Amino acid sequence: MKLAEGVARLERFGEIARLLWKYGRSDLVEQAGIAPELKEEPVLEGDAAARAEQLADDLEAMGPTFVKLGQILSTRADLLPPPYLEALARLQDRVEPLPFEVIERAVEEELGVRISKAFLTFDAEPLASASLGQVHAAALRDGRLVAVKVQRPGIRDRIREDLEALGSVASLLDKHTEWGRRYHLEGMIREFGGSLARELDYRAEAANLEQLAGQIAEFDLLYVPQPVHDYTTDRVLTMELVRGRKVTDISPMARLEMDGERLADQLFKAYLKQILVDGRFHADPHPGNIFLTDDGRVALIDLGMVGRIPDDMRSDLLRLVVAVGEGKGGEAAQVALDIGQVVDELYDPSEYRRRVEDLVQRYHGARVEDIEVGSIVMEIAHIAGSAGVRVPSELTMLGKTLLNLDAVGRALAPDFDPNASIRENAAELLARRMRREFSPGNISNAALEIFDFVQRLPARANKILDRVAENELAIKVEAIDERTIVEGFQKVANRIAMGLVLAALIVGAALLMQVRTTFTILGYPGLAILCFLGAAFGGLALVGSILLGDRREKRSASPSRPGENRL
User: DSSP secondary-structure letter at 93?
Assistant: First the structure.
C-alpha cells in the first residue's frame, strides 16, 4: 500500500514539474533539479492569452486541488500577469455528477438515518456538481425546502496527497531558486492548504453563513440562506433553498422591474463594510455565487471561502480604496508600500510610484463603464510585485473581491459607478471604525491599563530614585564604540603604510642590483644589499609588532560589556 502511495506521489510530482516546464518556468525546474525526464514536453508557444487559457484547462484536468489552486492564484496579481489572472478567474470545477446511489449512501452515513426518514423528498438530479461536492434540492419532513450540499467521498485523501506533492516542489524551489526565495512558495502552499481544509469543513461553512447574515442584517435587500444544524455535519451541509436565478441570467424585462441601482449600491456597501470594518468577508462573490431571488433580493451563497483581514491592516486598505476612488495615485502607491515589504535590491521607488500614479490617473477620468476598482487594485499589486515589493495576500484578495463586485454590480445596474459608491460610503466606513475603536470594551481595556500604570508608578519611581541615591543606576546602551573603531582604522593604516615602505625598499633593491658600483657587499652592489637588509629587518619588526600588540590588547581587554556606563 505504501509503495502504491509512493508511486502515485512521484507521478503527481512529475505532473507538477511538467506544468512548470511547459509554461515558461523551465529555469525553475532545472535549478531545482527536477527536470531529467521532461524533454518530451515542449514549451508552449503563442500569445499570453492563449497560454493562460491552456494553463486553466491543464489545471482543470489535474483535479480539484489544482482547480482550487488556480482560483487562489487568480487573486495573486503580484505573481502573475493580467491574462493569466483573467483566465484563472474563470476557472470552474464543473465535473460529472456522482450517481445518486453514492450520494444517498454518503448522506445516510453522515446523518445516521435513512434518507427517506430524514427528508420528505430528495431530488436525484443535482442542482450543481463540483469537484469537492454536489448540491441537491430536498424538502424536510416539515415541508421546508432546502439545498443539501454533499462532499464527494475520498476527496479529502486526494487533496492531502496533492498538497504533500505541492509542498515538496515548493520546498525545492524555495531552496534552489531565487524566484522561490523571493515569494516563499512553501508558505503560500501552507496557507492554501489551510484554506482548503476550512472549505472542506461544512460545519465551518454553516457558521460562516450565520455570521455573514449578522453582518449584513442592516441591508434589507440582501439575504444569506441559513443552515439547518440538525441536518449538518462536516461533510453534509443542509441550508435554506434559494429560489431565484444568477445575476448573470437576468433578462432585460426583469431588469426593468427591479431597482438594480439600489441593489448594486447595497451589495457594494455591504462588502466594503465586511472588508474594511468587520475584517471578515465572503471571499468568492463571483456572479455564479450571487442570486437574484424571486422576491427581488440579492442572495449570497457558497461561503466556503471567507477572507480575514487583521485589524491593523483595515485602515490601510480603506485608505487605498479611497485613494483609488478619488484618483490619488501617489497616496495609493504609498499605502501599498506601507502594507508591503521591499524584498528586492533592484527596487526603484521613483519608477514604482510613477507606474502606480499613471495607472490611477489613467482610470480617473475614464467613463463609468470603463472603471473597475478591483482591476486597479489588482494592477497595483502586480506593479508592486514586479518592482520588488512583496504585498500581503489580503491586498490581492481585496482586489479580486472588488473585481467580482464590479461585474455583479454592472449585471444588476449597467450604469453603476463603484467609484461613486466608494466616495459616498468612505466617510461612514471611517466613522464606523472610529466608533468601534471607542467601544465600551476598548475603553475599559484602556482604563485598566491606565489604572495599572498609575498604581505601579510610585513604586517604580521610588526604585529609580533609590538607585540614583546609592549610585547604582546603570544605563546600558548597545552601541558601537567609535573610539575603538578609529584606533583600529589607525592601526590598519599604519601597517598598510609600513608595508608599502617595505615593498618600495624591495623594489628599489631589485633595481639597484643592476647598477654597477665600487661599493659592494659579498660581491653584490652595497646599496641594494642594504635595502634588502632594511626590508628584512622592517618586515620582522612589523610581524613582531602585530603579534605582540594583538596579544597585549587581548590580555588587557575589559570583561565588562562594551557601551555600559555607570552614573
Answer: -
Which candidate, 390, 386, 394, 373, places its Cα nearest to that of 323?
Answer: 373
- The end-to-end CA distance of the chain, in Å, is 73
| HSE-CB of 487 using CA atoms within 13 angstroms | 7
Rounded alpha-carbon distances, angstroms, from residue 183 to 52, 68, 189, 195: 21, 19, 11, 18
Kindly give, in sequence order, each residue whose CB lies less than 8 Å from that of residue 186, ignoring residues fewer than 6 positions away: 167, 170, 171, 174
Residue type, 241: L
For the whole prediction, is pTM greater than 0.85? no
In this prediction, residue 420 carries a pLDDT of: 73
Is pLDDT of 43 > 50? no
- Range from 210-214, 331-335, 428-432 carrying the lowest mean pLDDT: 428-432
Which range of 4-8, 63-67, 421-425 scores highest in mean pLDDT? It is: 63-67
Domain ranges of the chain: 2-92+158-194, 245-437, 442-472, 482-566
Of the candidates 41, 46, 44, which has an alpha carbon nearest to the alpha carbon of residue 15? 41
Residue by residue, what is the 3-state secondary structure of 545-561?
HHHHHHHHHHHHCCCCC
Backbone φ, ψ for residue 82 (5° rounding): -55, -45
Strand duo 298-300 + 222-223: pairing: parallel
Which residues does the annotation mark as catalytic?
Answer: 284
- Contact call for residues 23 and 51 (beta carbons, < 8 A): yes
The phi-psi region of residue 296 (left if phi > 0; otherwise alpha if psi is between -120 and 50; otherwise beta) is left
- Here the cell at position 468 is 540614583
| One-letter amino acid for residue 367 of the chain | R
Confidence of residue 86 (pLDDT cuts 50, 70, 90): confident
- Tell me how far apart the 2 most distant CA atoms of the chain are, in Å: 129
Residue 333, C-beta contacts closer than 8 angstroms, at least 6 positions apart: 352, 353, 356, 357, 380
**Site of grid cell 500614479:** 357
β partners of residue 246: 291
439 class by beta-carbon count within 10 Å (0-12 exposed, 13-18 middle, 19+ buried)? exposed
HSE of 523, CA atoms in CB hemisphere, 13 A: 0
Residue of 400, 374, 408, 397 lying closest to 300 (CA atoms): 408
Strand 306-308 relative to strand 280-282, pairing: antiparallel
